[in-house]
Amino acid sequence: MNIPFNKPHFTGREKKYIIKAARNGNFSGNGSYTKKVQELFQARYGIRKALLTSSCTDALEMIALLFRIAPGDEVIMPSYTFVSSANPFILRGANLVFCDSMDDHPNMDPDRLEELITPKTKAIVVMHYGGIANDMDRIMALAQRYNLFVAEDAAHSIEATYKSRPLGSIGHLGAFSFHETKNIITGEGGMLLVNDARFCTRSEIIWEKGTNRAAFRRGEVQKYEWVDVGSSFLPSDIVGACLTAQMEQIKKIQARRVRHWNYYYEGLKTLWEQGNVQLPIIPEYASINGHLFYLITQSLQERDRLLTHLRKRNIHAVFHYQSLHNSPFYSHQQGNRPLPNAERFSETLIRLPLFYALREKEINAVINAVKDFYR
Ligand SMILES: Cc1ncc(COP(=O)(O)O)c(C=O)c1O
Question: 121 is in which domain, residue-wise?
Answer without folding.
Answer: 14-247
